[in-house]
Amino acid sequence: MQRNHLDVRAYETAERLLRHHRKELVFGDRVTPRWLEDGARFWYTVNTAEGKRFVVVDPADGSRKPAFDHERLATALAEATGQEISAAALPLPAIQPTALAVEFDAFGVHYRWDLDGQTLHQAEGEAPGNPLEVAAPDRKHAVYRAGHDLRARTLDGARDWALTSDGTEDRDYAANPDYLMYSTLLTKLGLPHLPPAVAWSPDGSRLLTHRTDQSGVRRTHLLRAAPAGGGDPALLSPRFAVPGDERIPLAEYVVIDIASGTVTEAQGEPAGMSMMSPVFQKWAWWSEDGSAVYYLARSRDARTLSLHHLDPATGAVRTVITETGPTRVDPAPTQLQPPLVKVLTGGREALWYSERDGWGHLYLYDATTGEPVNQVTSGDFAVQELLHVDEAARTAYFTAAGLVPEDPYRRTVCSAALDGTGFRRITDDDLDHVVTVAPNGAYFVDSASTTAAAPVITVRDWTGRVLVELERADISGLTAAGWRAPERFRTTSADGTTDIYGLLYLPHDFDPARRYPVIDTPYGLPPAGRVSPSFDPGHYGYEAEALAALGFVVLAVDGKGSPGRSKTFLDASYGNLGDACGLDDHVAALRELAATRPWMDLDRVGVTGMSSGGYASVRALLRHPDVFKAGVAESGMHDFRLLEPGLGEAYHGPYDAEEYAALANETLADRLQGALLLIHGGLDDRVPPQTTLRLAERLIAHGKDFDLLIVPDADHIYFGYEHYVTQRKWDFLVRHLHHTEPPTDYRLPPVPIDLEALADLFG
Fold this sequence. Notes:
By secondary structure, the protein is α+β, with helices and mostly antiparallel strands. The protein is built from 15 helices and 44 strands.
């Protein structure tokens, strides 16, 4: 029997809601401040109905104004270059504004636009930054990698010299682990590797870095089966440790004096390196006066975290603070955040983040004895980010979640005295606040929103007073495209003990008299939450909005085991990664919501996710085959035995062969009943394709029907292939949950490269 086709307009709308189209639908929803040399003023770009605009802000006098006359500059630049230049899309990746002029690079030439005379001319200026170099704060030197060693050069081109000469493949300088340092994504962008992992001293005279010891680390293997432009297949064999391995990447800290070439080695134990270099992760940093280096180190089982002091002159290392717990001890609420640790008063005190009392709080320590002085914050809320410390006023500023009864994930800007008194809410509303602090610490850029309320972006001082309003997001284009704000809901956990929060996205053609298929979109691991409390929904949120446009009810849940709330809530995942951060809570939420929403058809429930969400999606189908009838898993982490140790060992516990086998989705392959599409990149060096292929082998062994898509030249995020993978996913879910066919001959176009986003990514 021939089936009907879904209306092509649903796909067209869903395409418009994908992330790369958001700037066409929403204006003024984000500000990324680019600080000027004084650390007080800044400039930013904003998308408007008239195109991209450059804005300069001086909070001291409350001013916000165009950086220049966009139309006149476009005309002058067109005349100077012979190119067609639009004022709505000036080809300027960055500007250097002053009171009298704006300088920038365009078409390989450095220009100066005089604001008074409105004239354009070529000028002397710094060459555009090399993405493979790291420049010193004083802009006199830059450092880069040459082979396995480091070299330095003066930015005026006068001198170029070797800093090290003993680097080898197994012990090279300033390197990240192979999967990140030499990722297949970088290759596609034309970059041979990441820039060096180094931190300059404040005066630009010394470098903090490390030798990366990967000797004896096992290798995994990837096949470049379809090289671009043809040619023979090639084998890639990056080093890639897995749980239980004796050898993992280690960071051996060194300090290098640029002028003398002296290399001072740290006299402490090498630090274990998990996902990335500790310098990249900001687990190692210089003191403000450059007299010391501090770094965090964590035991391999993640249950002991310590702060160390490194003397850059002698290499002597001493332990400042140590904390040990029964489960992982984290320096921040989520995995990739900079640590909430700060050394104060010239090294005599330190602020330390800990969840020891059941909530994430700040503690003041005596950094000379390593003993705690007092608890700075306390109560049933969780500190999320350390923003600023005013040492003279003895006050810490931070964001905290749990102070808004309506939504325990929304972040509030707060302050407290270092002696533990004087807790105060600086932002006195019930919105979520995303904050960027000025380098001089005098004020902060604040984006205030909720999942339903568009951002209002201002500059505030630490009393909460608005100094200047920057943007009020215009979402009229988004709503015209059919978008509606998701419903924030609260349900009860599967064990009946805990409130669980999530979002429900309704179909664009919603009619309460109809019944709609439902799709769950889990994340699945505790390093990060699934639902953003702000208007920006994040990767999974954009996907949820597109799926709603295809006529699905879409569910997003933060179940027990995910971050952002109490330590007890988070630790539900420790030793229990197979629950994928509360899959039972997802099922309970589906049933509780459907009890009062008859338009949710629980006979047609699907699930989809990427990476750890891919693991969770397959896990849902296998553990709850009576609930989930179809699923799509992209780049799934289906077997923690094949992944880097920092996931399983830190978030589940030390390697145990029997326990880790039980975590693998292949162990439950015989339970598959629903429709399943497995997708993986053939060159995924973050989650090797073996994780999906081993699951596929077990499904075949059990005689299970499933679909498998290997994208030969694709990395973990399918760069260059996103459109194809997205369409295959949509088509699969439409067929198996709507029980209809996708539109005939509709094809998603390739996703354009976002040069500004890549510039942010690579500095």
